[in-house]
């Protein structure tokens, strides 16, 4: 009987021995039935009929209080629909004839003959199966027509009259709300998986009259009966959708197009959901995201000015992220990642644009770090960067990038036990070519700028900028001695302006770079 429906039976008799005898006499499960409950009188039986809605009622015709005959009449006068078998003795034949008029399926003489009852059950199961199958077929046919009408209406392939012909009564609700669903798998989603998820959603919504599930490539959708409700309700429905997809997907996006109050307006709800779904990378996880009107960005995505803005942001981020990792401040790195991502998202950058920019950012910083840090495992880190393209959510991307940054920071020997000044001196000697500013380092070391400058002067006898200039000039002298051109030397030691380099060189060496080269 596996996979077949089990039909519910209610046994009614005022004698406990007969009730238990019937329960144990027959191999109910083998015949496709299960004894859902028993009752000792008609009144109790009527209550249980309303509670469990049995498919088959087997009742004694003579019971104190409400008789079996009165019970059957009450059942037939209500909306309860079930098959009925009665139990009677020879003396109850007249009662039995009246019961037959109440559309019973048969009567059994006491003591009940097992073979006779089994014969009834076999015939009743065939009838129940037939009704169940035809009922399911009719239901499926109605659902197919309804889904086709919804698809036609949303696709603009038919007018409202033809799209809703014959189904307006089925969807005569107070309000409607379209939810679009996009399951995400690690590979391309296959039609059989969508069909499986869709069937689970149908059980949750169609069969419980909570909505109508439909397919609108590349999404699944639900026309929800009534509004989606408050935050708690949104999360609850999202969990149901997630559970229907669970075990087959890595993520599920579900967005709402907003509540509407007329069947024709579901097109508007659908269009709003489509707009929201396009921005799914930025959506919150664990709930159904609500519709919103189009964002107004200060710059048009992918415009020339937009690209220039991102270029400026990129250059600033490179310096800050590099220094944060250099000194081992992974919290500052995380903050930089969050702020950079927010600025890109706020300017209208797409998911692919944000991911690509971050890969470029980390690759550039990694190149700079590996130049000075032999302990950096660059190949492993680069492999991790490629994986960020698999992130389906904006917040997930930030978390993954922050974890990569923390891993890069912890893999370096940042001399954590040394004083801040020693670490600053070490940083200068390894990074003199960078755009080092006391203000930026103060932020990354979590110090007041003026106070850190004072500590540095006390420890080295020089102001920060003077110390940095002297380190750069000493390196410049070595490079000049190696035969490099003056403009090349200036660039390599961190001076973007050659004239400014000349000024600094003369200040600390007493002659110009060219004259120093001639002396060599």
Write up what this structure looks like:
It comes from Cohnella luojiensis. GO terms for molecular function: DNA-binding transcription factor activity; sequence-specific DNA binding. Keywords: Cytoplasm, DNA-binding, Phosphoprotein, Transcription, Transcription regulation, Two-component regulatory system. The protein has 520 residues and is an alpha/beta fold. The protein folds into 4 domains: 125 residues, 3-Layer(aba) Sandwich (Rossmann fold); 112 residues, Alpha-Beta Plaits (2-Layer Sandwich); 107 residues; 100 residues, Arc Repressor Mutant, subunit A (Orthogonal Bundle), CATH 1.10.10. Helix content is 56%, strand content 12%. The protein is built from 21 helices and 9 strands. The chain has a 5-stranded parallel β-sheet with strand order 2-1-3-4-5, sandwiched between helices. The chain has a 4-stranded antiparallel β-sheet with strand order 7-8-6-9, sandwiched between helices. The termini are far apart.
In CATH's first tier, which class of the largest domain applies?
A: Alpha Beta
* Shape by Cα distribution: elongated
Low-confidence stretches: 293-299
CATH topology of the largest domain: Rossmann fold
Number of domains: 4
Strand content is: 5-15%
Main pleated-sheet profile: 5 strands, parallel
Radius of gyration: 39 Å
In spatial order, strands of the major sheet run 2-1-3-4-5
How do the SSEs run, as a string of H and E?
A: EHEHEHEHEHHEHEEHEHHHHHHHHHHHHH
Give the strand tally: 9
Terminal Cα separation, in Å?
A: 100 Å
**CATH architectural designation of the largest domain:** 3-Layer(aba) Sandwich
Helix content: 55-70%
């Amino acid at each position: 009987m596996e996979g077949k429906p089990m039909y519910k039976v209610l046994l009614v008799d005022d004698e406990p021995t007969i009730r238990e005898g019937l329960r144990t006499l027959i191999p109910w499960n083998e015949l496709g039935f299960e004894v859902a409950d028993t009752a000792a009188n008609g009144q109790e039986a009527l209550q249980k009929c309303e509670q469990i809605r049995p498919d088959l009622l087997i009742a004694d015709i003579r019971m104190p209080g409400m008789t079996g005959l009165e019970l059957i009449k009450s059942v037939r006068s209500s909306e309860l629909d079930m098959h009925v078998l009665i139990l009677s003795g020879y003396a109850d034949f007249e009662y039995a004839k009246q019961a037959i008029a109440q559309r019973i399926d048969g009567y059994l003489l006491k003591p009940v003959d097992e073979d006779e009852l089994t014969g009834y059950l076999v015939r009743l199961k065939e009838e129940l199966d037939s009704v169940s199958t035809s009922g399911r077929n009719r239901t499926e046919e109605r659902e197919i027509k309804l889904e086709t009408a919804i698809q036609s209406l949303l696709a603009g392939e038919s007018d409202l009259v033809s799209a809703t012909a014959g189904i307006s009564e089925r969807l005569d609700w107070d309000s409607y709300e379209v939810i679009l669903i996009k399951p995400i798998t690690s590979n391309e989603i296959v039609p059989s998986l969508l069909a499986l998820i869709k069937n689970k959603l149908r059980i949750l919504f169609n069969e419980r009259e909570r909505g109508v599930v439909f397919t609108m490539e590349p999404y699944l959708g639900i026309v929800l009966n009534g509004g989606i409700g408050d935050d708690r309700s949104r999360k609850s429905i999202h969990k149901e959708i997630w559970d229907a997809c669970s075990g087959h997907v890595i993520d599920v996006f579900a967005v709402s197009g907003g509540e509407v109050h007329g069947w024709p307006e579901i097109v508007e709800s659908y269009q709003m959901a489509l707009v929201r779904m396009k921005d799914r990378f930025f959506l919150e996880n664990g709930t159904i995201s609500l519709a919103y009107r189009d964002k107004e960005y200060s710059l048009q995505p992918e415009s020339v000015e937009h690209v220039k803005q991102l270029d400026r942001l990129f250059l600033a981020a490179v310096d800050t992220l590099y220094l944060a990792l250099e000194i081992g401040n992974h919290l500052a790195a995380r903050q930089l990642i969050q702020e950079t991502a927010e600025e890109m998202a706020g300017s209208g950058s797409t998911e692919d644009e944000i991911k690509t920019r971050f890969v470029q950012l980390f690759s550039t910083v990694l190149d700079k770090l590996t130049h000075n840090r032999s302990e950096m495992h660059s190949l492993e880190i680069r492999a991790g960067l490629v994986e960020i393209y698999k992130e389906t959510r904006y917040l997930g991307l930030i978390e993954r990038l922050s974890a990569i940054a923390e891993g890069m920071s912890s893999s370096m020997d940042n001399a954590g036990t040394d004083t801040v000044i020693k670490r600053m001196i070490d940083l200068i000697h390894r990074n003199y070519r960078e755009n080092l500013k006391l203000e930026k380092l103060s932020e990354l070391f979590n110090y007041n700028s003026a106070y850190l400058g004072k500590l540095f002067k006390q420890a080295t006898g020089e102001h920060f900028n003077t110390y940095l200039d002297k380190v750069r000039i000493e390196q410049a002298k070595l490079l000049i001695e190696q035969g490099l051109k003056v403009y090349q030397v200036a660039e390599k030691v961190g001076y973007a302006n050659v004239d400014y380099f000349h000024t600094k060189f003369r200040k600390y060496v007493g002659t110009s770079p060219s004259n120093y080269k001639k002396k060599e």
